[in-house]
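Feature request disguised as a bug report, sorry. It would help if multi-protein outputs had a clear separator. Right now it looks like this:
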Amino acid sequence: MSERSHRDWAALAERIEVPALAWIEGPVAALSGETRPSVDPATGRVLADVAECGVADVDLAVASARRAFDDGRWSHAHPRERAAVLTRWAELVLANADQLAAGQPGRGQADRGHRDDRRARLRRHPARVRREPG
């Protein structure tokens, strides 16, 4: 990753569009339809309006995860398949690390060393699949 100035991070953050949606089997509005502002504590600037999820939204997300586990999409997948999914996730996180960091108030240049360490761990972790016959 290239060295970025505070101005670079601010410009990047200005370009990020955050939909006011939760992710439960895809992008969805909070059941209440409500949103709330996500505020940068350093500047007081509203970064985005985000879905204001409540207990019912959490219940839906947990039920969705339970269905995915119970129907075998994940739990019965071969470890190599799960590793491939996690590796792809890690690749996407790494490819979009600057944008992800820019969307987090108080992050950016000062957090670079920690991000680099996490990047290295992301690269290694999904590859650690226990060898099984087959």
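(second protein starts here, but nothing in the output says so)
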Amino acid sequence: MLPIVLTFVLFADPQWTPVILYGPSTFDLTETCRTSAHPDDASQFIRCANYIMGVVDAQAEGPTEKNPLNRYCLNNGITTVQLSKVFVKYSDDHPEMMNKATPFVLARAFAKAFPCSR
């Protein structure tokens, strides 16, 4: 099971309370998504799919000045299974990315597999 650690940072202003979430490492998510290919382990698939869809939802606004990495375009027909396979393949092809932030690696994998047409 992948631990998720929640860190709450409180500032003097009670209106401003950011939450920093630390999810699985790129290595851990790659292994979770890899083992989720086995149909008898639904819990692994759910972990993989939920994390990937959370990142996709968070990056849904597309590339911006603050976040230029979201340079991928997903059509409506793409499934979570396809996204997890793209991520695992990208991670296998780029082992040097295993120590990078997981959302960053997901965005790179999706940008390579699903580039936006200009």
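Even a blank line would do. Unrelated, but nice: Residues 25-113 form one domain.
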